[in-house]
Specification:
Length: 270
């Protein structure tokens, strides 16, 4: 068997190869720290772990769970939801007025633990009073099965929903446990609007679009410029004419070639 001189470097290279996650050498101690518990559980060293993840897709997926950063929040970067409610949804509602069952297709491409797609669903019920008459499909995807498990459960403590006004809280969640800790559960109306699925943005996508809106926020920071350019162009190809792509506020697309028009902070239109 070949001797692996630097298994941590190879693990970082594997994360890049499989998931596009660009872990610079400066992230080495973060990687070691995040894998340490798993190595103890499996009673193996980094070399043995590398061999294992190369052979076992389930362990590779578990490794990606550990190496991804799933930080998110309800109403994170709230001006996007303001734009979505004030520009995107009224424009679509006007264009589709008269349809017996107007369609709406949304993709939340890095849904993490669910706060973002649930906030989008909250915007939908706030902005479209007769939403139950619409044919809405929101796909919420992420590479992390662990994060998606939490997203699907849709249970959050009081701290997680603190960004919501009391009116939005009443629309979005039910009290699930009086606590402590007090726990809230996403309401069935919001749940009926969202479908979660695992999707690696670096692989082929089963969806054909077109999407009226794609939220791909705060994931491209982990990718290099070449990967970002490829991703944005693939997403542009899935947007309906006039459709909107939101990226994270720190993810300017100014350095990459793409066909979209910037119309506001981290907001692009096809
Ligand atoms: C920092 S969170 C952003 C969550 C949310 N979009 C937001 O803005 O609050 C980044 C998410 O991207 C996901 N991710 C990283 N690489 C990915 C890939 N190749 N395919 C799909 N999701 C990926 C991570 O699992 C993580 O949940």
């Amino acid at each position: 068997m070949a001797i692996k001189a630097d298994p941590i470097a190879e693990i970082m290279a594997l994360a890049y190869e499989v998931a596009g996650i660009n872990l610079a050498e400066s992230k080495r101690s973060m990687v070691e720290g995040r894998l340490a518990k798993r190595l103890r559980e499996l009673d193996c060293d980094a070399c043995e772990y590398l061999t294992r993840v190369r052979k076992d897709p389930k362990e590779l997926s578990a490794m990606l769970d550990l190496l991804t950063t799933n930080h998110t929040a309800w109403r994170r970067e709230p001006d996007h939801f303001d734009d979505f409610e004030r520009r995107v949804l009224p424009t679509i509602a006007k264009a589709r007025k008269g349809a017996s069952r107007p369609t709406l297709r949304i993709w939340c491409a890095a849904a993490a633990t669910g706060e973002e797609p649930w906030t989008i669903a909250l915007s939908l019920i706030r902005a479209i009073p007769d939403i139950e008459k619409w044919d809405v499909a929101m796909l919420a995807t992420d590479i992390s099965t662990r994060a998606l498990g939490k997203a699907n459960a849709g249970r959050y403590d009081a701290g997680r929903i603190a960004a919501l006004s009391s009116a939005d809280r009443d629309l979005a969640v039910d009290l699930a446990e009086a606590g402590p800790p007090v726990m809230y559960s996403v309401k069935p109306q919001l749940r009926s609007l969202v479908n979660f699925a695992r999707l690696n943005l670096m692989e082929s996508w089963p969806m054909r679009g077109p999407f009226d809106c794609i939220f791909c926020r705060n994931v491209m920071i982990y990718f290099d410029q070449k990967t970002q350019e490829r991703l944005v162009n693939r997403m542009a190809g899935l947007l309906a004419k006039g459709g909107t792509l939101y990226v994270g506020h720190s993810e300017s697309l100014s350095a990459i070639n793409h066909p979209l028009k910037a119309i506001g902070p981290a907001t692009y239109v096809a």
